[in-house]
């Protein structure tokens, strides 16, 4: 028995195979288990803060005064970090935010053939058995930019959180990179 993340996992060798390989039973693969929570405001390349407004069904980057920032309402995100069996993909994270007395979590949904960002009322789960529309992989934005990140949607490789100008709003969206080595400033979040 090995103790991992406050839960015991019993692993039993089942048989000895060819080339002296052991085969195991009872292993859990591709599961995300909560590790820690970070509390942060999220800024875009223009130093605007991400603000969630569930009453308007929108999340957008906005200019904020210091006085407006003090309220933290819809701006202070809980970044739920998870352990993963695939560390090369980046750190698995989920986002939630408090707006007034309610908690909302970020997820992606299909709507009219397009994947969109939504904030649903409720709490982020403690554990995911596998794939989830709530998980993003946190990656450094560039190799020389350790304080800026990009967040790749776990269910669609190459699809990242970004902002798009829509009238006077810089709305939070999912955006596809055309090439893996492409640098797109709209995906830069610090």
From TrEMBL:
Keywords: Cytokine, Cytoplasm, Secreted
Stored InterPro entries: IL-18 (IPR015529), IL-1_fam (IPR000975), IL1/FGF (IPR008996)
GO BP: cellular response to lipopolysaccharide; cytokine-mediated signaling pathway; immune response; inflammatory response; positive regulation of cytokine production
GO function term, MF aspect, one: cytokine activity
UniProt subcellular location: Cytoplasm; Secreted
Source taxon at top rank: Eukaryota
Single GO cellular component term: cytoplasm
Signal peptide (residue range): none
Family from the record: Belongs to the IL-1 family.
Subunit-structure text: Forms a ternary complex with ligand-binding receptor subunit IL18R1 and signaling receptor subunit IL18RAP at the plasma membrane. Mature IL18 first binds to IL18R1 forming a low affinity binary complex, which then interacts with IL18RAP to form a high affinity ternary complex that signals inside the cell. Interacts with cargo receptor TMED10; the interaction mediates the translocation from the cytoplasm into the ERGIC (endoplasmic reticulum-Golgi intermediate compartment) and thereby secretion.
Protein name, per record: Interleukin-18
Taxonomic classification: Eukaryota, Metazoa, Chordata, Craniata, Vertebrata
Gene: Il18
């Amino acid at each position: 028995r090995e103790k991992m993340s406050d839960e015991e996992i019993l692993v039993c060798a089942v048989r000895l195979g060819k080339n002296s390989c052991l085969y195991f039973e009872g292993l859990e693969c591709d599961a995300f288990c909560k590790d820690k929570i970070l509390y942060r405001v999220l800024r875009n390349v223009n130093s605007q803060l991400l603000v969630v407004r569930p009453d308007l069904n929108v999340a957008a980057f906005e200019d904020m005064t210091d006085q407006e920032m003090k309220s933290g309402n819809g701006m202070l995100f809980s970044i739920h970090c998870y352990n993963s069996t695939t560390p090369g993909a980046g750190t698995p994270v989920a986002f939630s935010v408090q707006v007034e007395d309610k908690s909302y979590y970020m997820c992606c949904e299909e709507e009219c053939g397009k994947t969109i960002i939504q904030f649903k009322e409720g709490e982020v789960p403690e554990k995911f058995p596998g794939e989830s529309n709530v998980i993003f992989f946190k990656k450094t934005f560039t190799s020389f930019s350790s304080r800026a990140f990009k967040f790749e949607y776990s269910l669609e490789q190459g699809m990242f959180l970004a902002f798009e100008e829509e009238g006077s709003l810089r709305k939070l969206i999912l955006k596809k990179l055309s090439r893996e080595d492409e640098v797109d400033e709209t995906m830069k979040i610090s």
